[in-house]
Write a structure and sequence with these properties.
Helix content is 49%, strand content 16%. The protein is built from 10 helices and 8 strands. A hairpin with a 2-residue loop joins strand 2 and strand 3.
């Protein structure tokens, strides 16, 4: 439920952080929280927005460390740590979207999501995406955006999935580097445990190697899929070799 209230231990588990991390964030007033008498509580609708914006802004060691932390809560779902082969399929990829505006790309991405057969309410999904973009653009430097609902509620989806669209022309999307965007990931997670980790995984992919140029050069959906899977495989291999 969007209006769920967490205590400090619950929000730590939800965010894949430690209780000490949460206490430090509260002390610094660096996380949305409320007091009820002597208790500190957290409203999920505020935490969702704060957490996703925080992850999208991470880079370098900070992103790597959060990715490592968030992996702990997903191991029973992804025993070999590979997320993308479980969530993305070639038929969930549209390599030639005709959208020319932010509004039209959101509509086309929802239509692509609906074609997966995993969306229960496409209108509700579109509205939630619009609400999320009103908070802050999900565009990232490098020409990609990580679209996701304002509230990722289990009832919205039959199963978790990722869709990927590539537009024929770049679209102004509000990225922090003010560059236009042509690669759009749509992350739809039925399970709370994987939403933030999936965001972190794709952010890590975007900052590593040449995956974005490769996605732009790929001739079709199958080639785009293989590009992403190979990039994730490289990240996981490097992670194991470093002992992270």
């Amino acid at each position: 439920m969007p209006y769920r209230v967490f205590n400090a231990d619950e929000v730590a588990q939800y965010l894949h952080l430690t209780r000490a991390d949460i206490d430090a964030l509260v002390k610094d007033h660096a996380i949305p929280f409320h007091t009820r008498g002597n208790r500190v509580v957290f409203y999920r609708q505020e935490i969702d927005a704060w957490a996703s914006q925080r992850i999208l802004g991470m880079q370098g060691p900070r992103l790597t460390e959060y990715h490592r932390q968030s992996a702990r809560g997903t191991r029973e779902l992804f025993p070999n740590e590979a997320v993308l082969p479980e969530l993305l399929q070639p038929q969930f990829i549209a390599p030639a979207l005709a959208a020319k505006t932010k509004a039209s790309v959101l509509r086309e991405m929802v239509a692509l999501a609906e074609s997966t057969g995993r969306v229960n309410g496409p209108r509700e999904l579109l509205q939630s995406l619009l609400q999320r973009e009103e908070l802050c653009s999900t565009g990232l430097p490098g020409g990609l955006a990580l679209l996701h609902p304002r509230h990722h509620e289990p009832y919205m989806f039959e199963a978790s999935f990722i869709a990927l669209g590539r537009t024929l022309q770049e679209i102004p999307f509000g990225a922090p580097d003010r560059q236009a965007t042509d690669l759009f990931f749509l992350i739809c997670c039925q399970d709370d445990r994987i939403h933030l980790h999936t965001l972190a995984r794709i952010c890590l992919l975007a900052h590593a190697g040449n995956v974005l140029p490769s996605l732009r050069q790929a001739p079709d959906a199958s080639a785009m899929f293989e590009c992403i899977i190979a990039a994730e495989r490289d990240i996981l291999r490097n992670k194991r070799q470093s002992g992270a």
